[in-house]
Amino acid sequence: MSKEDFGGGSLLIAWQLKGKNVLIIGGGEVASQRIASILVTDAHITVISPIEGLNPRTKQLIESYAHRITHYNRVFFGTADFEGMDMILTALDDVEISRAICQMSRAAKIPVNAADIPDSCDFYFGSQIRDGPLQIMISTNGNGPKMANLIRRKVEKALTGIEGEAIAKVGELRERLKVRAPGVGGAIGKRRMKWMTNLCNAWTLEDLVLLDGETMEKLLDEGWENDCVPSPATLGSRQQSSINGIFPRWGTAYAPTIGLVVGVLCATLVIISKRR
Amino acid sequence: MSKEDFGGGSLLIAWQLKGKNVLIIGGGEVASQRIASILVTDAHITVISPIEGLNPRTKQLIESYAHRITHYNRVFFGTADFEGMDMILTALDDVEISRAICQMSRAAKIPVNAADIPDSCDFYFGSQIRDGPLQIMISTNGNGPKMANLIRRKVEKALTGIEGEAIAKVGELRERLKVRAPGVGGAIGKRRMKWMTNLCNAWTLEDLVLLDGETMEKLLDEGWENDCVPSPATLGSRQQSSINGIFPRWGTAYAPTIGLVVGVLCATLVIISKRR
C-alpha cells in the first residue's frame, strides 16, 4: 500500500475457482468477456442463454471449450439453476431480471456480479494483465473502465515480458526447497521465506529466468544448506543478464555525453583537416 | 488479457465490503496487514485475539480506528463467532486451528482466507498499490510474495502519480453526465459509454486532472450536447499539460542530438578562438 488512505476502496483479491462451478446468464459481448476471465481459473462454466442471444465470440468459446462449458439454450428458470453453483455472473440487457437474480444469489449466499449494475454486485471486474503465474488487475472502483484500460497499457509497457517466467522459476525453486525442508508455518516456514526473500533481492529477473533444474539444486546445495545466497556468477549460471542489465542504463544516462564527445571529435577533425 | 492462455490462474476481482462485517482471528503481523487491507473497504472489523497476542502495529490500529474495529480479548470460540460475518480471515500460527476455521467457514458459506495455508483459501491476497480511486493488485498465484513486491515497485515507477486524480475527475464527469442523461443500460447507457471512451482517448491524464466543475459543465455543453469531443484548448482549459507532455519526450529522444550540437559548437569555438 503506497499511502495509508483508509476507506472508499475495494478489497482486491485473487479468487480461487479450480474445480468450482460458475453460472453465466446471458450470451452477448459481456458474457464472452466473462467466459474468457473464468476459463483462466479452471472452473467449469454453465452458460444459460437462448442460442439467438449468443454473439459470435461467445458461440466460438462454447464450441472451442466444449469440455469446460455447458450451454443451455433457454432463458434463466430461477433458483433451481443455482444448484451446485459457486459463483453467478449476469450479462443481460434487462436490468430488472439482473437485479432479481442478484437478490436470489445473495439469499443463497453465492457471490454474484451483475454487468452494469454496480450497486447489486458483491465484486467488480477490472482490467487485467496475465503473464503465466503473474496476474495484475487494475480497478478504478467504478470510475471508468476506459481509464483502467489506459493504465493497463502503461503497466504493460513497464514490464519486460520476463516477469512471468522469473516468477515460475521462483515458484519451482520454492517447491524444491519445500521438499528439502518440509513443514507448514513455524520456524522452518520463516527460515524458508527469509532465504527466498534474500535470493529475490540479490538476483535480477534475468538471473532467475536462467535457472534450470540442475542450477536450482546447486543453488540449494551451496545456498540453503550454508544459509547464504550465492551470486549467479559463483554458481556458474550463464551471465547474459548482467550485460542486459547494464546497457539500457547506458542508453539513457550517457546518451548526451556520448553525443557531446562525438560532436567534439567530429568538429575537431573537420577543422583540423581544413587547416592543413 | 494480454495472451489467451486459459487455465492455471485466479479470478482477480475487487470485492465490495462497504457496510459489511469482517472477522480477523489472530493479532500478529499478518493480522495487522489484514486490518490495513480491510480498513480500505469501509467494512466493520472484528479482531479476536488474546491481548498478549497483539503486535504493536495491530494494537495501534485497534486504538486509532476504535470506531471501526471491535477487539475481543480472547481466543476463537467456534461458529458462534461467525454470526453476522461476511468474510473471515485467519492470521494464526496454529495451522490445525486455521484449517478447522476454514472448514467451518466453508460450511457456513462465508468466504475465508487462511494465512500461509493456500489450499484452504477461497481467495489470496496480493501486493497492492492504491492512489485514490485507482487500485492495482499484483498476484503471483502463490509463487512468491517477494516477487509480487518487486513487480509492484516496477509498476509504481511506471505511474506518474496523477492517475488517481485523473480517474477521480473522470468519475465526477461521468456522474454529471448521468444527471444530464439519466437511465441504466440501453441506448443511453451505450451513448454515454461511447462518449466517455472517446474523451479518455482524446485527452491526456494531465488534461483530465485540470478539469474543474465549471469546465466539466462547459465540456458537457459543447461536447456531449453536440456529440463531439472538444480539445482542451477549444474549451479554454489551462494548457500546462501539453508542455509537460512534450518535454519528457524531448529529454530522451533528442538528448544525444543536443549533446552533439553542443559538442560541435564548443569545439568550433575553442578552435576558432585559438586560430586568432
Automatic annotation (TrEMBL), chains A, B:
<dbReference type="InterPro" id="IPR036291">
    <property type="entry name" value="NAD(P)-bd_dom_sf"/>
</dbReference>
<keyword id="KW-0472">Membrane</keyword>
<dbReference type="InterPro" id="IPR006367">
    <property type="entry name" value="Sirohaem_synthase_N"/>
</dbReference>
<feature type="transmembrane region" description="Helical">
    <location>
        <begin position="253"/>
        <end position="272"/>
    </location>
</feature>
<dbReference type="GO" id="GO:0004325">
    <property type="term" value="F:ferrochelatase activity"/>
</dbReference>
<dbReference type="Pfam" id="PF14823">
    <property type="entry name" value="Sirohm_synth_C"/>
</dbReference>
<keyword id="KW-0560">Oxidoreductase</keyword>
<dbReference type="GO" id="GO:0043115">
    <property type="term" value="F:precorrin-2 dehydrogenase activity"/>
</dbReference>
<comment type="pathway">
    <text>Porphyrin-containing compound metabolism; siroheme biosynthesis; sirohydrochlorin from precorrin-2: step 1/1.</text>
</comment>
<keyword id="KW-0812">Transmembrane</keyword>
<feature type="domain" description="Siroheme synthase central">
    <location>
        <begin position="131"/>
        <end position="157"/>
    </location>
</feature>
<feature type="domain" description="Siroheme biosynthesis protein Met8 C-terminal">
    <location>
        <begin position="164"/>
        <end position="230"/>
    </location>
</feature>
<keyword id="KW-0627">Porphyrin biosynthesis</keyword>
<dbReference type="InterPro" id="IPR028162">
    <property type="entry name" value="Met8_C"/>
</dbReference>
<dbReference type="Pfam" id="PF13241">
    <property type="entry name" value="NAD_binding_7"/>
</dbReference>
<dbReference type="InterPro" id="IPR028161">
    <property type="entry name" value="Met8-like"/>
</dbReference>
<protein>
    <recommendedName>
        <fullName>precorrin-2 dehydrogenase</fullName>
        <ecNumber>1.3.1.76</ecNumber>
    </recommendedName>
</protein>
<keyword id="KW-0520">NAD</keyword>
<dbReference type="GO" id="GO:0019354">
    <property type="term" value="P:siroheme biosynthetic process"/>
</dbReference>
<keyword id="KW-1133">Transmembrane helix</keyword>
<dbReference type="InterPro" id="IPR028281">
    <property type="entry name" value="Sirohaem_synthase_central"/>
</dbReference>
<dbReference type="Pfam" id="PF14824">
    <property type="entry name" value="Sirohm_synth_M"/>
</dbReference>
